[in-house]
Amino acid sequence: MSRIAKRFSDLASKNRKALITYIVAGDPSLDMTNTLMHEMVTSGADLLELGVPFSDPMAEGPIIQAAHERALSNSVALTQIFEVVSSFRRKDKDTPVVLMGYANPIERMGYEKFARAASDAGVDAVLTVDLPIEEIAFSSRIFAEFGLESILLVAPTSSEERIHRIVSKAEGFIYSVALTGVTGDKNLDFNQVKSQVMSIRRLSNLPVVVGFGIKDADTAKVISSVSDGVVVGSAIVDCLAKQLLAPSIAIDNVRSLVSAIRDGMDGIAFDLQVD
Amino acid sequence: MNTDVRASAFSSMPDEDGKFGVFGGRFVSETLVSALSDLEEFYKKFSSEEKFMEQLDEDLVNYVGRPTPLYEANRWSDQIGGARIFFKREDLNHTGAHKINNAVGQALLAKHMGKTRVIAETGAGQHGVATATIAARLGLECQIFMGEKDIKRQELNVYRMKLLGAEVVSVRSGSRTLKDAMNEAMRDWITRVNDTFYVIGTVAGPHPYPMLVRDFQSVIGREARIQILDKIGRLPDALVACVGGGSNAIGLFYPFLDDAGVSMFGVEAGGKGLETGQHAAPLNSGVPGILHGNRTYLMQTNDGQIMDTHSVSAGLDYPGVGPEHAWLKDIGRVEYVVSSDEEAMAAFQNVTRIEGIMPALETAHALAYTEKLATDLDSEQHIIVNFSGRGDKDIQTVAQLEGIEV
Description:
Largest sheet of chain B: 6 strands, mixed
Number of strands of chain A: 9
Oligomer: heterodimer
Helix content of chain A: 40-55%
Number of strands of chain B: 14
Distance between the termini of chain B: 60 Å
Structural class of chain A: alpha/beta
Strand content of chain B: 15-25%
Radius of gyration of chain A: 17 Å
Strand order of the largest sheet of chain B: 3-4-14-9-10-13
Largest interface: A-B, 44 and 37 residues
Distance between the termini of chain A: 40 Å
Order of helices and strands of chain A: HEHEHHEHHEHEEHEHEHEHH
Strand content of chain A: 5-15%
Number of helices of chain A: 12
Shape of chain B: globular
């Protein structure tokens, strides 16, 4: 059983929903990424998503774009990201790590070389935003040879017929995009999200998680009530952006945000204060 | 004949997946896939309808001012003392460049698809102006995305767009130039895909854009083919055009691709020289990769990050190139060369003085290479160069380089 499948089955047996947290590797530094990965797990994250910085992150809103730029200004590249994951894996053997990014850095490195290094480092899955089902066959075949799962997106604009084709190729879990927009947008529509998750569930037994636009304990609680989990990205990255000069405050704020979201999802009363 | 079968393959691309060999494709986030499939379907439907094509022709004749002349540059040809040179006068189009051919076509599609809003990216501002122009005429809401750096460099075009009723959005991410404007336009489109039509200005982007823009620009080559046959009774020996994204070049080349005797040269921006790294010549020094929805040659680092580019001409300042050009390079049908900033400036001065026609700095890159090519040919041979735009927009840049205040 893959690390991702095991994590979701453990969660299901405890009747808990998955909290997936996203940060960009190397934002604001690789050391911080290292620290944050463990801190987020301690605060309640079940899976970690690491953004691979790219010069032209087409699907990201302004908060995550800025994070990509900060990471690139530190010249963060895939090789260093693999080192960060390796070092995380030495202490944490159970929390799945998903790399999320764009095709070009992988293509430049070479799909096979990338897959081998990612797998050696302890990466579990890859979500390549600009490889839709029509373009994913090549990379997902190579990734599978190295035990890496390919995560696919379903969007509000995906037709029933497309959802069918997506879920037939999906591995690990299905990432249901909550809104027609970029990461961190605000126009989340609960009924839309619910019906999209239900359409996916009718066609697939894989866990369905929802991301884009989930920013606090309230939205996480509501959305996780109709899905198998949520992805929180921009809200966490924003904690880092707001305290670039005070890393320890930034870490504290991420910790409080993640715990508050965890508590919200677990149905525990909370009092959220982040600044 | 065997060769004909092989030759006709040149104009039969892209394939069903929007690929030109390994290039092209549709590398976008899932959210955009259905919009692109819809666009492809609508385009197939409308382009086979007589009524739509008649309306497009009508617009090209009465609004754009087509056909544009094929002008024989006698004094310049004499000066060089080699091949005879013809200018395909795209500078005489409404708004002063070839960009309007495509903007008119896509805006008509937008209207027929029931979209109420158009968006576009722009570098130098020519495509932005063309889109704002046709949006004004069709009564469509219009937003133009432009890098903050380009807004400063091209104040006049920014004002023109505003006069035409468009909103110009300043893009402050990344390198703050054309490539970032394109990212931002894509993001806007992801967010408002239901009511918005994205008018891409060049033969790049995800399928079907490279095909669709090429088809709308091919009017250049179709006219030129008829005109040259009329003037000299045979096809030209060579075609020359500048290549940024590559829309004016493919527009001229495409209708001649299957004519084996016609050589073609695409001229990239050599900037300060290929060896300096300060240029915009992905076909000459880039490697294949994925950007803006397609696989093509890109200027990129060893880590796969897209590099900043440099050219004296804002319209060529792009790190990628249309996927069809990438394919035509690899199969050897078109030769891709460079002209430096300096060579382009010299050609700008020379052609302005000797022919009384002021080229855009983009066009000046094609002219600079034409001069070299013509020298090696004789007076029985003929070159058509795509005179893609007029130079009025560049007067400030030229003056600045000469140290003159205007």
